[in-house]
């Protein structure tokens, strides 16, 4: 289940507001097959000058970071709007991945577990002796996909790069986010 960290700027977070935020954002749990042990960071702001309320929500998940913000004259309306926006984000990613998977004949994408078969290898508890020491190892099983699907996976993971098996060439490829916000593709010669 999601837990909540609700903060207020220029507003006291009353029990009624906290309960409403938790009730509305907890609706997102229906999109996950397994309960999520994530913290939903909710920031409520009131701007007295123009009499508006802004709600910002960030939910870091193992495979995706959900983030949305909405501004309206009513705090409760802002909470409703931001919840709807988060719901659309989840459906959008799930739909895109499922569509790509069906085109390739792969099982439907589920919003559960580590993406792309990644398995964490436990880290050593020792202090690093050298700056070049590997402190974490991750193993991935590469699934055949095209660069567009790999970019979607990378964005969902919140990473700057993603390694995949190119469905057309069967070679290992890497997509990455460039500093200008666009994407790059590295293909290997085999």
Automatic annotation (TrEMBL):
<keyword id="KW-0963">Cytoplasm</keyword>
<dbReference type="InterPro" id="IPR050574">
    <property type="entry name" value="HPF/YfiA_ribosome-assoc"/>
</dbReference>
<dbReference type="InterPro" id="IPR032528">
    <property type="entry name" value="Ribosom_S30AE_C"/>
</dbReference>
<protein>
    <recommendedName>
        <fullName>Ribosome hibernation promoting factor</fullName>
    </recommendedName>
</protein>
<dbReference type="InterPro" id="IPR034694">
    <property type="entry name" value="HPF_long/plastid"/>
</dbReference>
<dbReference type="InterPro" id="IPR003489">
    <property type="entry name" value="RHF/RaiA"/>
</dbReference>
<keyword id="KW-0810">Translation regulation</keyword>
<feature type="domain" description="Sigma 54 modulation/S30EA ribosomal protein C-terminal">
    <location>
        <begin position="130"/>
        <end position="185"/>
    </location>
</feature>
<dbReference type="InterPro" id="IPR038416">
    <property type="entry name" value="Ribosom_S30AE_C_sf"/>
</dbReference>
<feature type="compositionally biased region" description="Basic and acidic residues">
    <location>
        <begin position="121"/>
        <end position="131"/>
    </location>
</feature>
<dbReference type="Pfam" id="PF16321">
    <property type="entry name" value="Ribosom_S30AE_C"/>
</dbReference>
<feature type="region of interest" description="Disordered">
    <location>
        <begin position="111"/>
        <end position="131"/>
    </location>
</feature>
<dbReference type="Pfam" id="PF02482">
    <property type="entry name" value="Ribosomal_S30AE"/>
</dbReference>
<comment type="subunit">
    <text>Interacts with 100S ribosomes.</text>
</comment>
<dbReference type="InterPro" id="IPR036567">
    <property type="entry name" value="RHF-like"/>
</dbReference>
<comment type="similarity">
    <text>Belongs to the HPF/YfiA ribosome-associated protein family. Long HPF subfamily.</text>
</comment>
<comment type="function">
    <text>Required for dimerization of active 70S ribosomes into 100S ribosomes in stationary phase; 100S ribosomes are translationally inactive and sometimes present during exponential growth.</text>
</comment>
